[in-house]
């Protein structure tokens, strides 16, 4: 946010949370001028605006403006105020390198966000797309439903082992469980109770199946409305396209393809220690573990090369991810 430095404007930096907003006014000398803590809500927003009116034309910066700070970002945008999005990692680096032992408090987080906004040169103006926010919510809702269904099916498997010696085969569905249940007519009170529980779980699974199907339909409609061309790529269906859109938001917020690769955790970086120099490995930055883009951004030939280079005579066998290979793993490579 170089404009704030050039004109000497004060930046109102906010550390957002679900309950309070903590704001710090940071001047061009990177010094905090004042701090305020307000409750999240209309009254807290009005107090925040009155706090900012103490300075002439202040800039605004929010840590995670598209995350926890999205409600505040939307309010400010509605009032015609642009907001600089400060990544949480950048604010954390500023805090760690500052004086005061890098202690993490809401006040220091807000001040760190203000300093980052004044000194960083490649920060973007935050934008909150209501359609993407809704898509992200539906995708997460579907994932929660799928997890709940998996847990319910697991409980159903356990109960069926008490009612029938063979239990149920894998891939159990509500219809298959109902068929099994019809063949079980216990006379003992305990077994009748178990059968009743199984019937309840079957009903829960049917309800979850309907909710998952509805969520999938909502996701498909949202992806079609977005006009994305992701589904034209081999291996990416509607659900994966929705996850990518929900996670990445707009591609314009990345300054280059390299920055996007770093975000997804697929950017190769050099690995070395002393005289030992390893080959390139995947970056650990970005949401790599959850990223649905990972398998699509890594060329297939890279995996094949890793298979051929798993064992080298001058070093111990290592796996692609850096762990030691077992004898069985080496035999199957």
From TrEMBL:
User: Polar residues: which segments have biased composition?
Assistant: 321-333
Which GO BP terms, alphabetically? Answer: DNA transposition
- KW Transcription (keyword) present: no
Q: Where is the Transposase IS116/IS110/IS902 C-terminal domain?
A: 229-288
Report the residue ranges that make up the Transposase IS110-like N-terminal domain in this protein.
Answer: 13-165
Q: What InterPro entries does the annotation carry?
A: Transp_IS110-like_N, Transpos_IS110, Transposase_20
Sorted alphabetically, the keyword list is:
Plasmid
Under the heading Pfam families, the entry gives: DEDD_Tnp_IS110, Transposase_20
**What segment(s) does the record annotate as region Disordered?**
271-333
* A GO MF term: transposase activity
Protein name per Swiss-Prot or TrEMBL: Transposase IS116/IS110/IS902 family
């Amino acid at each position: 946010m170089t404009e704030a430095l050039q004109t000497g404007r004060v930046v109102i930096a906010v550390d957002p949370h679900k309950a309070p907003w903590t704001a710090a006014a940071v001047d061009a000398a990177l010094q905090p001028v004042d701090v305020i803590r307000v409750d999240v809500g209309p009254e807290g927003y009005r107090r925040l605006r009155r706090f900012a009116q103490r300075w002439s034309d202040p800039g605004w910066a929010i840590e995670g403006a598209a995350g926890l700070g999205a409600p505040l970002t939307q309010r400010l945008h509605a009032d015609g105020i642009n907001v600089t999005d400060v990544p949480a990692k950048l604010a954390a680096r500023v805090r760690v390198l500052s004086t005061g032992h890098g202690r993490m408090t809401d006040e220091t987080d807000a001040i760190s966000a203000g300093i980052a906004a004044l000194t960083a040169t490649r920060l973007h103006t935050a934008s909150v797309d209501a359609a993407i926010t809704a898509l992200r919510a539906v995708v997460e809702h579907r994932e929660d439903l799928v997890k709940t269904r998996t847990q319910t099916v697991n409980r159903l498997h356990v109960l069926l082992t008490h009612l029938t010696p063979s239990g149920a085969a894998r891939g159990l569905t509500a219809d298959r469980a109902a068929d099994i249940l019809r063949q079980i007519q216990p006379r003992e009170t305990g077994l009748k109770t178990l059968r009743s529980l199984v019937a309840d779980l079957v009903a829960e699974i049917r309800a979850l199946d309907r909710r998952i199907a509805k969520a999938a339909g909502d996701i498909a409609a949202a992806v079609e409305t977005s006009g994305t061309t992701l589904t034209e790529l081999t291996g990416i269906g509607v659900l994966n396209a929705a996850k990518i859109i929900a996670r990445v938001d707009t591609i314009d917020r990345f300054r280059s393809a390299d920055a996007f690769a770093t975000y997804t955790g697929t950017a190769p970086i050099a690995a070395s220690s002393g005289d030992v120099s390893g080959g390139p490995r995947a970056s650990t930055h970005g949401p790599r573990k959850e990223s649905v883009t990972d398998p699509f951004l890594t060329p297939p030939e890279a995996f094949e090369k890793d298979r051929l280079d798993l064992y080298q005579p001058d070093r111990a066998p290592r796996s692609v991810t850096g762990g030691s290979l077992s004898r069985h793993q080496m035999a199957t490579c």
